[in-house]
Every structure is written in structure tokens, then in C-alpha cells.
Records
---
Amino acid sequence: MPSLPVPETPAQPLPESGLVCDLPERLPESQISILIVGGGVAGLFAALECWRKGHNVRIIERSPSRSVSGDGFSISTSAIRALQKWPQMAEENERISYEPWVSWHKITGEMISGPAPFQLNQSKNPDQKDLEEKPVPKVYRHSRPKMHKMLCDQLERVGIIVEYGKQVVEYYEDADLVIAADGVGGKSSRITLGREVPARPIGYSIYRASYPLDQALCDLILDEKLPVMENGMPSSQIWLGEDVHAVFGRSADEMTWYLTYPNHEQGKESWSHWVEPETVLKTTAIIKGWPKFANRLIQATPKGRIHDFKLMWREPQPCWTSAGGRVVQIGDAAHTFHPSSGQGATQGMEDAVSIAACLQMAGKDNIPWATRVHNKLRFERVSCLQLLGVVNQEIRHRSVNAQPSQTKPIGLLGAWIWEHDPEQYAIENYDKAMKHLADGCSFQNNNTPHGYSYRPWTLDELLSDKEMGKKIVLEGDWE
Ligand SMILES: Cc1cc2nc3c(=O)[nH]c(=O)nc-3n(C[C@H](O)[C@H](O)[C@H](O)COP(=O)(O)OP(=O)(O)OC[C@H]3O[C@@H](n4cnc5c(N)ncnc54)[C@H](O)[C@@H]3O)c2cc1C
């Protein structure tokens, strides 16, 4: 991306009320100019966090307008903590997200346990300070389009307008910094790794749809089978079967359903590959015991609303920066997660916070160090979470025949995940990680599971262990 001028960010505009408290405090100008590529959650939030740290930001996106695509994703406390530094977004996040109560079912619809709040595992020995300072661990469910709108509106309030319809065709090192948030399969890996990251199918696809609740509730049977909770909370039913699982979620205004199914043939890893209900019904017809009412929910889905997304795997890639350190990948561009892992948006936001803070620590003269340190601080954590995605998928499939008392079908979602504060972590560890990279001084990340020494891993190893009947053993405290 050669010599694209990055304009000065306009002075902080006063809201109509004349109060400046609607915006977070901005650090003094750092004189660092940043071009952000990609207007997904990672790029949009990086633009905001970089603005907060006093950097000058320009953001471009290849699509002609703000994305209104996708159904929903989860965002956990580690990323929400960063949103809370933005008063209007903190308030809007509470308004537009929801926290479903979850019940677990067999694939026949028969309930195993729940409904109960979707609780993350609390710290085992929280001290008093922890209890006072740390928010309750939560997973917020967000509609992707509403989340994008919230971030874009906030950008406008600080005077940054996303430039739509601009596509990067090649990356270069001649800017202060390019943050490549260009998503799965983006072009940026050519400058960080020198090649595209190979993707391979994992043998599953997922049908996903979300549509206005009113349209589903025209069918009274659906209202009865997927009722609102007595306490008024939104609900999600998770159905587990041999090699398949489904989710049915009802929020205040939307009905959402997902069906993960084995697929060794056709399918595209694409958020613009749509199918009609009849295609899904061919799949449900071969699921033993699949109840008829669930087909009614699929049939009620409006035309053009069902994604058929082929699940692909990419090995963890440790290098997210270009040789000169002037291009850094964040979000899905740096690390992919399956849509059902619940980590894609959260880790993209953690990256955004971390890179902005590393640049604050480095200053304009040390930008390449900022990107390398950011990479050092983030990679092992993200790689552990990618591994956890594989492990949790296994746990879900093993839970099919479990008794309610034995189920932990959610998988492992320990305190090390949600307690993390990526801004504080970057600030506290920047110098140590920098000395490690520059002079070889010893440094160990502690944003991974306690008691676990990071070891590189590959999916190939996991698959061959699985074939030999070996279980994945996770040392340390992943729960
Ligand atoms: C259309 C779409 C729908 C999605 N829906 C869901 C969903 O329903 N549930 C879910 O869990 N996840 C969904 N995802 C993925 C999810 O949004 C991400 O995993 C997560 O939010 C991390 O976001 P990201 O910013 O890293 O990547 P993305 O959200 O993929 O954003 C990357 C952005 O970069 C832009 N871009 C790519 N290449 C270029 C280029 N050369 N020049 C300029 N811009 C470029 C893309 O157009 C895209 O807007 C969706 C992604 C997309 C693209």
C-alpha cells in the first residue's frame, strides 16, 4: 500500500450537549500515522483504540458500505472491558447485546440440563481486590451488523470516517504502519509469511441463519417449542448428536439457528454462500430422531438468509509482522477461529487493544518494535485458544451420551481467558518482551493457562494422535 497519505485526525468534536465526557480521554498526539485495512470488528476497534492512544488513523474497506451481513457472534469479558473505556459504547453494548440462558438437549430435542445462565468459570481463588475490581465473567451475544454499526458510529463521533470501496492489492513497508485487518484469506499474509496460508476442510459445514422473531412466531408451534424464559431472559437450546450439533436461539427481536453437520464434499468457506431451506431439509432428513418442529423453524427462514459455511482449518501462524515491522496483521488475518469457537471477534478486539498500547509504549521512533512485541505478547495466547477450539469440539461430541450431572458440554472456558486485560498486559510486559526480543533476556508470557508451558502444535499432530486413539492432554489449568 504505497504512500497513502494519512490525514491528521480532526480535533475531538464536542457533542451537541457540549459535554466532552461522552468520549474517553485521548492521549497526546503520538505523531504515528496508521493505515488500517479492513472494516471488520478488528479493524474498526483498532481504529478507535489507536485514536484513544493519540495515533492518527485512516481506515479503508473494500466493500461499498458498512457490513450488514452475518448473524451473530459472542464477545467475552476480556474484550468488553476495553469497550467500557468508551462511555457511549459501554451503554450501547448493554442495550444491543443479550445474555442467553442455555439448555442442553439431545439431537432429538429431549432436554439434558438447564436452562441456566451461560456462566464462565470463575477464578478458583479470587482475592478481595479481584472481587471488587473484576466484572462478573459473561459472554455477550451480539448481532454482527449491530456491532459494526456501533463501532462505525463511535468512529464518526471521533471524526474518523471509514473509506469504503477501497481495496488493497499489495502491501509495502513504506508507511509508518499498516495494520492489516483484512480477515480470513486476506492478502496481507504475502508480506508477513511470503505466501498465502493453506486452508483445508475439517469435514464439517455449518448452516446458519438469523431472522426477525415476528416471522418465526407466525408459527405458534415454534413459539411453544422455543419459548421465552419465564424470567424474560433470551434463551438458547444446544442440541448434541453424533457428529452433528445444532443451536436454536431466541432473543428479544431475532430467531437464530445453526446446524453443524459432516460435509466431506461440496461447500464454500464464504459468508456469501447461501442456500434455501430445502437444501437444509435434505440434511436434517438423515439425522436420526430429528424432530419435525425443528424443520418448521428452517422452513420459516426467509429467502436468502441461510449461510452454508464450510469449516476450514489453518495451522497457527506465529509470524504476524512484515520483515521491516511496518505491517502487522490482526484479527482473523493473523489467526482464524471457527465461527462456533466463540473467539473470533473477542480475539480481534484484544489484538486491537494490544497493538494500540504497544505503539503507545514504543513511540514513533520504535514502531517496528511495537509490532514485534505485540506479536510476542499475543501469539501464544491465541494459539492456546485455537487449540482449545479443537478440544472443546471433541468435548461436545463426547457429551452426546453423558448424564446431566456429568456434562460439561460447553467445554473448557477458564478464568485465564476472560480475566485477561490486553491493555494492561501490553503496558506491563512491553519492556520485558522487548528486551527478550532485542537481547535474548528471558521472558515468559502469563496470559495462557496457568501451569502450562507453551508448546507449538499442529493440527496434523492432533489428527494423527486421534487416529491412534490418543487423548489430547492439556497440562496446567485450562478450566
Ligand atoms: C461478511 C461476513 C459475515 C460474517 N458473519 C459472521 C457471523 O455471522 N458469525 C461469526 O461468528 N463470524 C462472522 N464473520 C467473521 C467474524 O466477523 C470475524 O471472525 C471476527 O469479527 C473478526 O473480525 P475481523 O475484523 O478480523 O475480520 P472480518 O470481519 O472478516 O473483516 C475483514 C474485513 O476486511 C475487508 N478486506 C479484506 N480484504 C481487503 C482488502 N484487500 N482491502 C480492503 N479491505 C479488505 C473485508 O471486506 C472485511 O470487511 C463474518 C465475516 C464476514 C466477512
---
Amino acid sequence: MTTILVTGANRGLGLEFVRQYAAEKAEVIACCRNPAKADKPAVPGVRVMELDVGSPESAARLAEALGGKPVDILINNAAVYGPKKQSAVESDYEGFLETYRINSLGPLMVSQALRANLLAGRDKKLVVISSEAGSISDSSGGVLAYRASKAALNMIFHGVAKSWARDGVAVGILHPGWVKTDMGGPDAPIGVEESVRGLRARIAELNLSNSGRFLDYKGAAIGW
Ligand SMILES: NC(=O)c1ccc[n+]([C@@H]2O[C@H](COP(=O)([O-])OP(=O)(O)OC[C@H]3O[C@@H](n4cnc5c(N)ncnc54)[C@H](OP(=O)(O)O)[C@@H]3O)[C@@H](O)[C@H]2O)c1
């Protein structure tokens, strides 16, 4: 049975990953900041575990609780949109740094903490949910903290893909589309079900020969 660990699994795209993979009878480890408050997906076999992706201590506690359990697919999904003020004219610098901490460093801290679990897994697939908003070549400006945090995430995991390929780990850097969630808002044209179906197809295709690419949920390449 494939074991999949998802961060930010209590709502939005993370919760939909849990629903879809659990419905396929995969073993799903659903991580969230506050398991007591998390919506329970309507499918059995999901283990809910605590993880604040902005905290290396929390990531280390999760690794300890997992105790060497193999993880086949790690999906770094959790992120924040950043502070209210993140324009070229006025920025909340603390909020800017917090956005980097959660969106850019968080997935690295979690992946490094769970590296042994991933290496013990069969599939060895490491996924980060990025955003087209992090593409410098496509950028129209604005929301600088969010955009910069995702551009940094892309650079970090492009590097991780090069380095971890030696250990057989394939890295997917994926954009989910503009999706109706708390972050995407009600005007987004894509539903969570469609987006996650596409992302899961990209994860199924992920291997060492296409590792480190920046793709959208339909498989189209996005410029860095
Ligand atoms: N929706 C879109 O249109 C869109 C477009 C491009 C990319 N994305 C990316 O897709 C991913 C999922 O986004 P979404 O739309 O599902 O967002 P969402 O509905 O706002 O959900 C964000 C999730 O991240 C979790 N999270 C935030 N900070 C965390 C932390 N420090 N530790 C652990 N969990 C934390 C939240 O948990 P709490 O409930 O505890 O806050 C929540 O579960 C993100 O990486 C986002 O950047 C989304």
C-alpha cells in the first residue's frame, strides 16, 4: 500500500488530496497545525498528525512520531498568502519574513526532517505545491511576499531535485491552477476536485527523468 503524507491537510487542496488518495485505498497521513480542529475526511484509514511547517521543532517531533515509517510520497502543500501589506510601495516586513518561513523554508525543513522516511519508501516522490505567481517570467507584479516566497521555493526544490536524484528521489514542483479555496477565493474558475485530480496525475507521472520541472496541474511547463 502506498503511504502518502500531506501537509496543510485540514482544508483546501490539502484536504482534497487526503480525500482522493484515501478513496484509492492509499494509507494517508494528514498533517495539520491543529488536529483537534481539523475536518475529518469522510473516508476511513486516514491518520491525522500534528505539524506546523514553519517550525523545525514541530517537523522533528513529527519525524520522531513516525519512527522511521516509510513514506512513498511527501506532498508539501501548506502555505499562506502573506500579509495585507506586500506591495512595492508599502510592505509588512515581519509578515514578509513569516511568509518566507512557511512557504519557502517550511517545505525544506519538513523534507529534510522526513528525508529518512522518504528514502525508506518505495516511490521516493517529493512534491511541492508552488504557484504560477512565483514565476518571474510571467509576473505582473504585486503580492510580493507570496510571489517571492514561491520563487524561492522553486529555486530551493530545483536544487533539492539535483542533489536528491543521487538517492533516487524525484521532485515535482506543481502549480494547482487558480482554485476555489479560502486562498483562491470564490471567483476561482477551478474546483478542488479537478485540480487535485490533475495534480495526482502529475505525481503519478513523476520520475527521475522529469524531476525538478515546474508544471501546472494539466502538465504544461511554466517558465521560471
Ligand atoms: N487556491 C489557489 O488558487 C492556489 C493557486 C496557486 C497555488 N496554491 C497553493 O496551493 C497550496 C494549497 O492552497 P489552498 O488554496 O488549499 O490554501 P488554503 O485553503 O488557504 O489552505 C492552506 C492550508 O495550509 C495550512 N497552513 C498554513 N500555514 C501553516 C503552517 N504554518 N503549518 C501547517 N499548515 C499550515 C492551513 O492550515 P490552517 O487551517 O491551520 O491555517 C491550510 O490547511 C498552497 O501551497 C498554495 O500556495 C493555491
